[in-house]
Design goal:
This protein is of the alpha+beta class. It has 2 domains: 93 residues; 103 residues, no CATH class. It contains 5 helices and 6 strands, in the order ββααβαβααββ. A hairpin with a 7-residue loop joins β1 and β2. The radius of gyration is 49 Å and the shape is rod-shaped.
Length: 217
């Protein structure tokens, strides 16, 4: 029989170990323990450096999800409120523009002998129940409103100044700002003092009541 061995020429008198003898030789157990400890240290270092930080971040993110959902719900509510405010501002802006056109029409169509006392919008009462296939808002829009005008003109001897009043109403109804939204519903003349002679003295005025109904949209 012959055994393989290796001579260490750099260190005369010492028989060099092969890589198998390094683990199974007399010092093999200690070396295995040392190698296992080094491997365990490397694995622990990899876990600490590469595994634990993402795990901690994931746990933190999962814990923040309820707070983020609550914050999202709050922001969604604020967004809805802001959207409602913007819609209300849009409606108010349209109303102001419409009223500016209406007042401009009154300023141009009112003759000097007629003095406006009051111009108001009366909203018609809401219908008791909308018909099938129609929403409540559509029913209200369909019912429309009324534009009530109160004016006075000096009372002069003789018949009432019907020509001036007719010219005033005709000019209003032909103005684009009025004609596209309203139509004549009724008009009335009221004598001062209920039509008796006591109120027909100097300075008495004839009251003119005009009601315009809003056209269906």
């Amino acid at each position: 029989m012959s055994a393989r061995f290796t001579l260490d020429l750099l260190h005369p008198g010492h028989v060099a170990d092969t890589w198998q003898d390094w683990f199974i030789g007399p010092q093999g157990g200690r070396r295995l323990v040392l190698a296992a400890g080094v491997c365990a240290g490397v694995i622990l270092l990899v876990v600490i450096v590469l595994v634990l930080p993402p795990t901690f971040r994931l746990s933190t993110d999962q814990g923040a999800i309820p707070r983020l959902r609550a914050d999202l719900a709050t922001r969604d509510g604020n967004l809805n409120l802001l959207r409602q405010d913007l819609q209300a501002l849009g409606v108010e802006a349209k109303r102001q523009v419409r009223w500016a056109d209406v007042l401009s029409a009154f300023r141009h169509q009112t003759p000097p002998t007629i003095k406006l006392q009051k111009v108001e919008v009366a909203v018609a009462p809401a219908p008791p129940a909308p018909p099938p296939g129609q929403t409540q808002a559509q029913g209200i829009l369909a019912s429309g409103g009324e534009l009530k005008i109160e004016a006075v003109t000096p009372l002069r001897p003789g018949p009432p100044p019907l020509l001036e009043i007719a010219t005033f109403m005709g000019g209003l109804l032909k103005d684009p700002a009025i004609a596209k939204r309203y139509r004549l519903k009724s008009w009335e003349l009221k004598q001062p003092g209920g039509g008796g002679g006591a109120g027909s003295g100097e300075g008495a005025q004839l009251q003119i009541l005009i009601t315009l109904a809003e056209k269906p949209r």
